[in-house]
Amino acid sequence: MQGGTDESDGDKLTLVTPLQYLPGMGAVRAQRFTRLGLRNAQDVIFLFPRDYEYPAPSGMVDSLEEGKPASLVGTVVDAEFVSRKPGKSMFAALVQNESGIVRMLFFNQPFRSDQLVVDQRVLMSGTPKLNGMRMEFVHPKVTLLDDAEDVPEPRILPVYPLTDGVKQSEVRRLVNETIERLAGDLVEVMPPSLRQEGADQLRKQGVDLRGDLVTIDVALRSLHQPDNPLALLAARTRLVFQELFVMQLALAMRRRQLTTDLHSPPLASSAMIDARIVNRFPFELTGDQKSVIGEISRDMSRQFPMNRLLQGDVGSGKTAVAIYAMMLAVANGHQAALMAPTEVLARQHYQTLTQTLTDSRVRVGLLCGSLSAGERRNEIESVAAGTTDLLVGTQALIYGGIDFKSLGLCVIDEQHKFGVAQRVALRSGGVDPHCLVMSATPIPRSIAMTLFGDVELSTLREKPPGRRKVNTYLAHDGWRDRWWGFVRDRIDEGRQVFVVAPRVSMTSTDDEAGEDVASVEAVFEDLCNGALADYRVELLHGRMHPDEKQSIMEAFSAGRIQVLVSTTVIEVGINIPNATVMTILGAQRFGLAQLHQLRGRVARGSHEGHVGVFTDGDDSPEENERLQVFEQTDDGFELSEADFRLRGPGDMLGRQQSGMPPMRIADLIRDQDVLVAARALAQSMIDEDPELSADGLSELRSQVMRRYGKRMNLGDVA
Ligand code: ADP
Ligand code: MG
């Protein structure tokens, strides 16, 4: 949302005039304001208010409500000191208008007796309270009015973000003066036809909008100095639309680029291939798995890359879908790569694949940190030679310049954090493999359209048959002993147990949390010497050597360890069907999605799962809204919606995670309708004019490129 010229001439104010030369600034002041991220005039104009102060509605006495801000115009009809004690004075005045009488009360403001004399007209505002039969305003804001004077129009005031040493009134003044002088210089990226089409699309989505979208200067003036709520709404709509529209144009360009500029090997299926693959599974695929496989097979048969996100709750059977897709690549004579977020998970996938493919000619390779240099070199060579058909590894390793003979498909597992930027990185290796991203954290459509805006979405809603219920219990006071007794009973029945805590050790410095936070080291000590002293308990956390982690996971998997005390390294994907009990400590420190992932670990076998949820410090699990939701629903989609409601989408749209710039004014949950409208218009424009080369669009086009060109690799369109 930028515009402007690049040359600055000494005297005249322009959009690029540095902060210190703006009216009333100077070097010292400007220094303080830079902490708000302001460098020049344009930044000032684009400093969006974070909120507004609305004038209290001017009221009639009989419509006043206790506790509700209001303002009134009236005449003082009586005024007196109720008490004159120095330091304890109390002054009261009665104000009357045609609708009735209210009382004003002032403590220790004796000067009020000079202002508020009988017959003085006043405008007062404040929050009334009922005192006896009469509404009373204590210390209202008072404006003295001449008899004839019109009541000043109450204004909506912008509230700006502040920083040390910068006052709200100073920011307001700076913004006002800057916009007065420079609003006319702003570059309009949306010509009249677009402002009209945008408005039409918005109305189609049910957005309340009169007339066309307003011009950029009107929008910014009204955003900073709104005449009324409608003008403010119109301004915001225009700016939100622009922000989302520019993003959606970039995404539409990118989608187009993927289908026209990139070339992938078509990897077609056939009845024979399909039967051969399906026969490898020890189970019947669910209906959802079959239909997603249908979508994937269609995508992969094309000559441009599949770019698909597969969402499915923990345990919905995403891996089987991935295996199908990989085998389809191999059946067509190409290689496939499967990338996991952790080494433990990579090894597990490797095992699943080798099992599924026993007695076949398909060769599966594993690339992970604990390989010796020699093993690693061998693996890389056999990938390059094409003897390895399927390569499993962590993302870091596979990105690291591996040379495939002919990579046909890339599967990225458990990666909701995986955004546009990373996928671009994957593609820049000279080949354009088909790409399947899998995520167990379902995200609302509007977020998906942003974060994964160039991606098709598939969803597994149905769970494979035979899944057991997981019972979730929020711990009550004094519940610990009972819980550990329950845990011992389950171990005695032959089950295995996870205990999860938020951090590694009491002395961790990687966390600003206080002493109260449960650490796996402390918990491990406690359990070994206490509640679980008679059992085989082991410790697992991310700081351990990969070999050590690996051997502990293997021992747990083989049942030689009964209790695994660990950090969230076990969060993703680990599959140990006999582990059916989980204790989560310090649960308030985990997000809902993470808790749900953790819970998914004990829902994998034929026995019922049990999760005990504890918090540390003074937080009670029963008072934590997130944990209550967690106890009440076991559906990942419902949880994720609740999570967005409770926390907002910020976490997911964090810049590091998604590779997308943060939204400056749009709110992806609140502005979903605008997003849909922006996407529709963007798509139809790019369909007609893929490079935005029509007359009048050059400013728009350069804004798209400036904001998204590099991030989305739109370079060759430029
Ligand atoms: P996730 O979606 O969490 O990655 P997985 O693919 O690991 O789930 O599947 C969870 C478990 O369900 C695995 O043990 C897998 O073998 C099993 N599974 C997957 N699909 C089916 C099916 N159609 N019928 C029965 N079991 C299945
Ligand atoms: Mg999985």
Based on the model shown, name its key terms.
single chain, 718 residues, alpha/beta, OB fold (Dihydrolipoamide Acetyltransferase, E2P), 5 domains, 7-stranded mixed β-sheet, 7-stranded parallel β-sheet, 25 helices, 17% strand, globular, disordered N terminus, binds adenosine-5'-diphosphate, binds magnesium ion
Write structural notes for this entry.
With 718 residues, the protein is an alpha/beta fold. The protein has five domains: 7-53 and 167-176, no CATH class; 61-155, Beta Barrel (OB fold (Dihydrolipoamide Acetyltransferase, E2P)); 192-262 and 666-714, no CATH class; 271-460, 3-Layer(aba) Sandwich (Rossmann fold); 470-633, Rossmann fold. It is 38% helix and 17% strand. The protein has a seven-stranded mixed β-sheet with strand order 6-7-4-3-2-5-8. A seven-stranded parallel β-sheet has the order 12-13-11-14-15-10-16, sandwiched between helices. A six-stranded parallel β-sheet has the order 17-22-21-18-20-19, sandwiched between helices.
The percent of residues in helical segments reads: 25-40%
Strand residues, percent: 15-25%
Q: In whole angstroms, how far apart are the ends?
A: 19 Å
Number of helices: 25
Indicate the CATH topology of the largest domain: Rossmann fold
Shape: globular
**What is the CA-based Rg, rounded?**
32 Å
Report the average pLDDT across residues.
86
Q: How are the strands of the biggest sheet laid out side by side?
A: 6-7-4-3-2-5-8
**Major sheet description:** 7 strands, mixed
Query: Low-confidence runs (pLDDT<50, min 5 residues)?
Result: 1-9, 653-657
The chain-level structural class is: alpha/beta
In CATH terms, what is the architecture of the largest domain?
3-Layer(aba) Sandwich
Overall number of structural domains? 5
**Looking at this structure, what is the CATH superfamily of the largest domain?**
P-loop containing nucleotide triphosphate hydrolases
How many beta-strand runs? 22
Bound molecules: adenosine-5'-diphosphate, magnesium ion
